[in-house]
From TrEMBL, chains A, B:
Subunit structure: Homodimer.
Lineage: Bacteria, Katanobacteria
Designated name of the protein: Proline--tRNA ligase
Family: Belongs to the class-II aminoacyl-tRNA synthetase family. ProS type 3 subfamily.
Domain notes: Consists of three domains: the N-terminal catalytic domain, the anticodon-binding domain and the C-terminal extension.
Gene name as annotated: proS
One of the Pfam families matching this protein, by short name: tRNA-synt_2b
Major localisation: cytoplasm
């Protein structure tokens, strides 16, 4: 088969075409047959498995245990918390037939599990001794979406959802903060992505929450991505669901609750954040394959040498693949792994086999280096670390250089037209201004950063007094 | 709180009451609000996590990769393979409303994923170079069941389903055998359970398969449990789904397929197989907690000493919990962990703290032994190994001593009335005899063991010539 470089649209020209074609061609995902659904192919799912592995350790270290709740929620349960059901109603998938018969009560396929879990919590919690309840689930949820994008917005997606119940609000809020900090750290250390942590406005918060904390990252097209959330639910669910406990003094109280989740949408963010015109660039800690060995020849001693290199790297704990496909050219194979974003490519031919060396090529900057086999494992490990940190630094610099201040609404509009990104601006916290800004500029409030100081200024839209600068951006 | 031993029904008196109450009281599971659904509580889900960990390694070592396919299957896809849809039709849950609107095409919640996966395979497979396709999923599936039992039969359950496509039937059949052998080994090494591997009769095989291999274990009440299956699908799906490939000679062929699955039902079998009148007995390799440290006093130096013991055991890689609940008596705490089936209990009070010793109690045989702290980790590890192997030996002995031979139908009926268990008997392989035996004795054909030799005899029911002794049993 003659080598032809696949015509991937340039990321710099049209990121949305680049994204779609890359996701399909790199074998990350495919469209499912039902509207808005997607198939996570092994290469894309492998990234999610690495996210799970990293996060599950943190979740368990906090004392939160995994469990599994049914995905079918009787309609009556969902209706118990009014704001919650109103928020999710337009997005529900409903089972009306089971075992060949029309059901007496419709079953909702969970869009999130607050209601079904808290119904159970109300049976399990009686006294302070039963608290805290610290439970997490890794599962699938369904939200019927009109417009879908692979990974970023699909009818069914995968996520973890943590749900805790506590004796005091202070203890619950500590958990809400812990979760968002844990996510920020996972994004930093594994996704190589920076972002802003803050509080959502009333209009943008989770249906049923007192407060929603969010982690907002920035995509190359200047749009923000809400990358995960952590909710202070207060007693909004424990009152209707009657999750009550006797405290140490024998008094009956309602529990204080939290929920927090990170989904497979995060992989969409990852793809956008780090790719380039040649394809994907995967941060080493999430890459299903960290180093691919591409022998120049696809038989004989060169392949043996490639396998030897692979063994050396495997022995050092590197996730390795050897690509000796004899029906593809060397050029095709190289481009294929570039497209797939494998962090390090190791090339070797007959000369390298004789000299016991190999050429190491970094995916992020294309730098090539000839390394002796004896030093290869150490070199690969430091290079993987370098890349991991380099991707984060780059992403953080991008975030910072694309965060602007706007004093006036004219400035605000100019930035949103010209370069987008995050804008820091005073807002009076009235919903009406927020709504109009969104209508006129497509930018919504993303969050009030947790570290924002109280200042005094004037709302960028209406001019009335304002205490805080909020972050605005157009969003996915 | 005064200590009262919970009134668990005796396993020996009424295994089904014992089972239900134990599952609830040990915190393994609870009933979900929708009919036939269950909640996997952390303690029960922890067992499943250990099964996943063990099996995922084996699956990946075979080169099978994890992926995720949508759970909604358009009705038209399910209808493509006629025997398959007929087999599952009575059990389907159907989504008819999405995003507030009646759907144009109904969506089936997957009862298994053959059809949705093979629709994708037909797009991915073009030539022999794309083969084999080796994909596994860990997911949730739904089969509407009239009668449900926690773990053993629930509307929604969790499992893994492996689905492979090959260029030749021989290669596919090797995979079918690999899977059932892998399962048998996982049952032996992790569940501590023995069973029979064999071929299902035509009436009992999977809807759409050429051949179904099964692993059948035996429950203490003498009933068999189909514990997992591995299917040779032949070309039964590749023809209607048009999964075609060009072979090395340029000829177009249909692929040969397999599917194989093990579900959370296996945990139901585990509970039944190993419990006793005092509760659960967990095989150490699947136990979420392998050793519980129960200090006699619940404060002061004794608790410090308990934590010290825990650190020593954690350091040796043992999964440990310290139970110093100050609102429960020592007796209550001991019984609670006995009920929960934790393999080893380590008791210590002031005297033990002073002497740097502890009392080690085995859950399986109740044997107590005083061990010095210096030798505790090694002793715990060998005891866990002993228990793991001991449970298997016991289960294997039970299986063998409850497998009978029946020459005549009178004998067959007597055994099924008196002691049940497996019966080895000649069967002519006519469906009519199989059906009548089931109607008259409640015993169905479980399998033709893979190692069964061809013999010559007469059908235990009709007397006509028969070549093989099949295994019969009443089943869950």
């Amino acid at each position: 088969m003659a080598f032809t470089k696949k015509a991937l649209p340039k990321k710099s020209d049209n990121i949305s075409q680049w994204y779609n074609q890359l996701v399909l061609e790199a074998g990350l995902a495919d469209y499912g047959p039902a509207k808005g659904t997607m198939i996570f192919r092994p290469y894309g799912f492998g990234i999610w498995e690495n996210v799970q592995k990293a996060m599950d350790v943190e979740i368990k270290a906090k004392g939160v245990e995994n469990a599994y709740f049914p995905m079918f929620i009787p309609e009556s349960l969902l209706r118990k918390e009014k704001e919650h059901v109103a928020g999710f109603s337009p997005e529900l998938a409903v089972v009306t037939i089971g075992g060949g018969e029309e059901l007496e009560e419709k079953l909702i396929v969970r869009p999130t599990s607050e209601t079904i879990m808290y119904d159970a919590y109300s049976k399990w919690v009686h006294s302070w001794r039963d608290l805290p309840v610290l439970i997490n689930q890794w599962n699938n949820v369904v939200r019927w979406e009109k417009r879908t994008y692979l990974f970023l917005r699909t009818t069914e997606f995968l996520w973890q959802e943590g749900h805790t119940a506590h004796a005091t609000h202070a203890e619950a809020y500590e958990m809400v903060l812990w979760a968002i900090n844990m996510y920020e750290n996972i994004y930093k250390e594994f996704f190589g992505m920076a972002g802003y942590v803050g509080i959502k406005s009333k209009a943008e918060k989770f249906a049923g929450a007192l407060t929603t904390l969010t982690f907002e990252s920035l995509m190359p097209d200047g749009k923000a991505l809400q990358s995960c959330t952590s909710h202070d639910l207060g007693q909004n669910f424990s009152v209707p669901f009657e999750i009550k406990f006797q405290d140490k003094n024998g008094k009956t109280e309602h529990v204080w609750q939290t929920s927090w989740g990170l989904s497979t949408r995060s992989i969409g963010g990852l793809i956008m954040a780090h790719g380039d015109d040649n394809g994907l660039i995967l941060p080493p800690r999430l890459a299903p394959i960290q180093a691919v060995i591409v022998p120049v020849d696809t038989q004989g001693t060169v392949v043996e040498y490639a396998n030897k290199i692979a063994d050396v790297l495997k022995g050092a704990g590197v996730r390795v693949r050897v690509d000796a496909r004899d029906y593809e050219t060397f050029g095709f194979r190289i481009n294929d792994w570039e497209l797939k974003g494998v962090p390090i490519r190791v090339e070797a031919g007959g000369r390298e086999a004789a000299a016991q060396t190999a050429t190491l090529v970094r995916r992020d900057n294309g730098v090539k280096e000839v390394v002796s086999l004896a030093k290869l494992a150490a070199k690969v490990q430091t290079t993987l670390d370098d890349m991991q940190h380099g991707l984060y630094s780059q992403n953080k610099a991008f975030l910072e250089s694309n965060t602007s201040e706007a004093e006036t609404y004219a400035e605000f509009k100019n930035i949103m037209e010209a370069r987008k990104g995050f804008i820091r601006a005073f807002w009076c916290e009235k919903e009406d201004c927020e709504k109009k800004i969104k209508e006129e500029t497509k930018a919504s409030t993303r969050c009030l950063p947790l570290d924002a100081k109280e200042e005094s200024g004037n709302c960028v839209y209406c001019g009335s007094p304002a205490k805080h600068k909020w972050l605005f951006a157009q969003a996915y």
